[in-house]
């Protein structure tokens, strides 16, 4: 029986950008993460996925909706309660260099959260724990007295992971943890996160723009576009039977190593740029780039529906109430 560790319900995060304008970074997004699973959140830069991560952790106040962690509404906790709960929730950042203080040694970087939470009575015990953490992430104790700039990108991300593990969290938000790394190193970091998950029973929210890597680590995946969740299902169903045109376009951009499949594959060509979240399109937010856009798409926001078991999508192509599904123009599909 799955136990929900995190529930995000109809979350909105809007930013006032002045002159009466509002940037709708996150719009009515709902999903849950079961204890022990990895939930992937995918979409282009600027789609709101990192804002969701930061709002879950209380780094941003919410505009509307709820974030429920282990039964507690995190945005209505007292400061003392927040201090306790945020020990269980940690974050791994995209840029391991920017997120590590260059003037602190690796030992100081990893020990800092332990000091803030007063975890150890003696410096000796604390240092032993730093050594243990370095070994857990594939580094060694000799690295403790060195500075972040002395390490490669992959090693710096390992230091960031060790720091995130310092408080023995149960839930980790990994915000684009591999985007800044070379492809060869990306797989190593993903494998490390998978191993740590099994060893420590961790739950992950894995945020990324690259669907190919997210598949390797996620049990379920939510696809975001311009502040909205457009599809959500198991990792397998998303890859085998994607429904939303945006998901199909993202998937069709990933090269397949098998030349036969690659040759027969349909590519969906996305035209235009991501619109501004300050002035999103009416109806379906994807309609300005969707090859299958119909008349109704400009007028009515597509409902969030469960089309198959545990497979949710927001698209009028699957809306039984829309009778005329003729696209406005010939879809730009390449074989
Ligand atoms: Fe495309 Fe319309 Fe579906 Fe939006 S609702 S994804 S515009 S077909």
From TrEMBL:
<dbReference type="GO" id="GO:0055085">
    <property type="term" value="P:transmembrane transport"/>
</dbReference>
<dbReference type="Pfam" id="PF00005">
    <property type="entry name" value="ABC_tran"/>
</dbReference>
<dbReference type="GO" id="GO:0016887">
    <property type="term" value="F:ATP hydrolysis activity"/>
</dbReference>
<feature type="domain" description="ABC transporter">
    <location>
        <begin position="6"/>
        <end position="251"/>
    </location>
</feature>
<keyword id="KW-0547">Nucleotide-binding</keyword>
<dbReference type="InterPro" id="IPR027417">
    <property type="entry name" value="P-loop_NTPase"/>
</dbReference>
<keyword id="KW-0813">Transport</keyword>
<protein>
    <submittedName>
        <fullName>Stage 0 sporulation protein KE</fullName>
    </submittedName>
</protein>
<dbReference type="GO" id="GO:0005524">
    <property type="term" value="F:ATP binding"/>
</dbReference>
<keyword id="KW-0067">ATP-binding</keyword>
<dbReference type="InterPro" id="IPR013563">
    <property type="entry name" value="Oligopep_ABC_C"/>
</dbReference>
<dbReference type="InterPro" id="IPR003439">
    <property type="entry name" value="ABC_transporter-like_ATP-bd"/>
</dbReference>
<dbReference type="Pfam" id="PF08352">
    <property type="entry name" value="oligo_HPY"/>
</dbReference>
<comment type="similarity">
    <text>Belongs to the ABC transporter superfamily.</text>
</comment>
<dbReference type="GO" id="GO:0015833">
    <property type="term" value="P:peptide transport"/>
</dbReference>
<dbReference type="InterPro" id="IPR050319">
    <property type="entry name" value="ABC_transp_ATP-bind"/>
</dbReference>
<dbReference type="InterPro" id="IPR017871">
    <property type="entry name" value="ABC_transporter-like_CS"/>
</dbReference>
<dbReference type="InterPro" id="IPR003593">
    <property type="entry name" value="AAA+_ATPase"/>
</dbReference>
């Amino acid at each position: 029986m799955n136990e929900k560790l995190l529930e995000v319900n109809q979350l909105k995060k809007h930013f006032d950008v002045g002159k009466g304008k509002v940037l709708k970074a996150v719009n009515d997004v709902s999903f849950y993460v079961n204890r022990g699973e990895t939930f992937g959140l995918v979409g282009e830069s600027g789609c709101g996925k990192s804002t969701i991560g930061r709002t879950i952790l209380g780094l941003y106040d919410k505009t509307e909706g709820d974030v429920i962690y282990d039964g507690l509404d995190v945005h209505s906790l007292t400061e003392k309660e927040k201090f306790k709960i945020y020990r269980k929730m940690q974050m791994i950042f995209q840029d391991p260099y920017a997120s590590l203080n260059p003037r602190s040694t690796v030992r100081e970087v990893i020990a800092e959260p332990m000091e803030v939470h007063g975890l150890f009575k003696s410096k000796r015990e604390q240092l032993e724990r730093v050594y243990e953490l370095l070994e857990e992430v594939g580094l060694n104790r000799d690295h403790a007295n060195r500075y972040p700039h002395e390490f490669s990108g992959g090693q710096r991300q390992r230091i960031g992971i060790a720091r995130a593990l310092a408080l023995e969290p149960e839930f980790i938000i990994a915000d684009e943890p591999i985007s800044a790394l070379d492809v060869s190193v990306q797989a190593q970091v993903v494998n490390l996160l998978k191993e740590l998950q099994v060893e420590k029973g961790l739950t992950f929210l894995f945020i990324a723009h690259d669907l190919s890597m997210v598949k390797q680590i996620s049990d379920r995946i939510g696809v975001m576009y311009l502040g909205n969740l457009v599809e959500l299902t198991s990792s397998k169903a998303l890859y085998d039977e994607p429904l939303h045109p945006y998901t199909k376009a993202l998937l069709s951009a990933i090269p397949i190593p098998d030349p036969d499949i690659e040759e027969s594959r349909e590519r969906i060509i996305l035209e235009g740029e991501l619109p501004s979240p300050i002035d999103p399109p009416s109806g379906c937010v994807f309609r300005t780039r969707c090859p299958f856009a119909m008349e109704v798409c400009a007028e009515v926001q597509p409902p969030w529906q469960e089309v198959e078991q545990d497979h949710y999508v927001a698209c009028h192509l699957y809306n039984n109430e829309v009778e005329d599904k003729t696209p406005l123009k010939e879809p730009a599909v390449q074989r």
